[in-house]
Specification:
Bound molecules: zinc ion
CATH architecture: Alpha-Beta Complex
CATH superfamily: Peptide deformylase
Number of domains: 1
Oligomer: single chain
Largest sheet: 5 strands, antiparallel
Helix content: 10-25%
Number of helices: 2
Radius of gyration: 14 Å
Shape: globular
Length: about 140
């Protein structure tokens, strides 16, 4: 595994809308492992592919059970109820600001075995997923109210 370089604002790749992944190749699986390693070394709780210079719809999230890879994730439902909590971002170093996010979300994605996964997320887990999906759409915390 190797540590990848994390792109920081204003790198233009952070502003692109990332492309859907059409096939989960061995390169994608290797990238997932390297992203997980990079996230851990940087003490991050989530990392999206555009942050390491790949404009594809993939992110990794740190969970109690290890890293979770989400391929082509979509948030299929968001609670109207929101929470305002401070967030930081590895691509926006030194900035911490409160961001309003839905408290509960439902997520659909592919895992690295090309299986569709659907789950409910709440609290910090829901917040991290919303943050990473924003990255796939070129949105940074500095854009959020
Ligand atoms: Zn971020």
């Amino acid at each position: 595994m190797s540590r990848l370089e994390i792109k920081t604002n204003p790198d233009p790749i952070l502003r692109e809308k990332a492309k859907k992944i059409s096939e989960i190749t061995p390169e994608i699986k290797r990238l997932i492992l390297n992203m997980a390693e990079t996230m851990k070394k940087a003490n991050g709780i989530g990392l999206a592919a555009p942050q390491i210079g790949q404009s594809i719809r993939l992110c990794v999230i740190n969970t109690e059970k290890g890293h979770l890879a989400l391929i082509n994730p979509t948030i299929t439902w968001k609670s109207l109820r929101k929470e305002n909590e401070e967030e930081g971002c590895l691509s926006v170093p030194g900035i911490f600001k409160p961001v309003k996010r839905s408290k509960i979300i439902y997520v659909k994605a592919l895992n690295q075995d090309n299986k569709e996964i659907k789950f409910r997320a709440s609290g910090l887990f829901a917040r991290v997923i919303q943050h990473e999906v924003d990255h796939l759409d070129g949105v940074l915390i500095t854009d959020k109210k």
